Each structure stands twice: as structure tokens, then as C-alpha cells.
Amino acid sequence: MSPRSARLARLSRSVTFSACHRLHSKSLSDEENLKLFGKCNNPNGHGHNYKGREVPSILAHGVIDPVSGMVMNLTDLKEYMQEAIMEPLDHKNLDKDVPYFSEMVSTTENVAVFIWDNLQKLLPQGILYKVEVQETEQNVVVYKGEQTIVK
């Protein structure tokens, strides 16, 4: 197959996981945390069913293999998502059970970055396109691995 006839495709798979957390920054006072995070700063935490939205949680992209007809095997993607998302996050207290969040505020933005970083370790290089995490019907975060320049 010549490079001209190679076809690109995107594939997606979603999962739903349940977790609880408390939005609280150790860099702020209790009063500042309450003002910034409101009811989400409840000392006992609160829970969510995190899931994908119209565009599911994980979107991979790449060249369709001419032999298999796939960008990647969805069974493999399912296993990677189990290891990268479900095992560390499902039915966990993010702040207490996931070491990553011991020093990082467990916002949905940071949950998306955590998932991205975990999947990057497992997926073939360059195949991960984006991670989308829906915290509520109204709140969705999309992360594509972008980083800012450190000043």
C-alpha cells in the first residue's frame, strides 16, 4: 500500500467510574478554600459518576492497518483503559486512595491529566488524541496533552 492510499481514522471508547473527592488546596487557608470551591470543599467530600459525553472518554487516532483493518485493537484499548483508569480510580477516594492527588487538587482537569499520563505509558506512541471527562451533565473537561511554557 502506498503512502497516498493510507487512511487515517479515529476510534473511541468510553468508561464510567465512580469516585469521591474534596476540592481543597493545601496552599490556601480553610476560608480561602471554602470561598474558591464552595460546597465542593465539604470536609467529608462528595462523589461523581465520571464518564464520557457525546465524544467518549478516550479518542485514539492513527493509520488504518491494511492487514487488520484497525487503528488499534479495541480489546487492547479496553485493557489499557482498565489498567489506566478503572483500577486506580473506580470506587476510590481520589484524595486518599490515589497518590497522584495527595499533593494535587482533584479537579476534573487534573483527573483528565492523570488519565492522559497513565494511558500514554500504555498506548502505542502518538495514538492518543484526547481524553474527555464528564464530571456532571454540565461540566466536561477535554485534555489533549497540551502543556504551557514554564516561565
Summarize the structure.
The chain has helices spanning 30-37, 74-89, 94-97, 108-122, and strands at residues 8-13, 17-21, 46-50, 58-63, 92-93, 128-134, 140-143. With 151 residues, the protein is an alpha+beta fold. It has one domain (13-143): 2-Layer Sandwich (Tetrahydropterin Synthase, Chain A).
Q: Mind explaining what this structure looks like?
A:
The protein is α+β, with helices and mostly antiparallel strands and 151 residues long. The protein has a single domain (13-143), classed as 6-pyruvoyl tetrahydropterin synthase/QueD (Tetrahydropterin Synthase, Chain A), CATH 3.30.479.10. 28% of the residues lie in helices and 23% in strands. The protein has helices at 30-37, 74-89, 94-97, 108-122; strands spanning 8-13, 17-21, 46-50, 58-63, 92-93, 128-134, 140-143. It has a four-stranded antiparallel beta sheet with strand order 1-4-6-7. Strands 3-2-5 form a three-stranded mixed beta sheet. Strand 6 and strand 7 (140-143) form a beta hairpin. Helix 2 packs across helix 4. The longest helix is centred in the middle third of the chain and has 16 residues, at 74-89. The mean pLDDT is 90. One of its GO terms (molecular function) is 6-pyruvoyltetrahydropterin synthase activity. InterPro entries: 6-PTP_synth/QueD (IPR007115), 6-PTP_synth/QueD_sf (IPR038418), PTPS_Cys_AS (IPR022470), PTPS_His_AS (IPR022469).
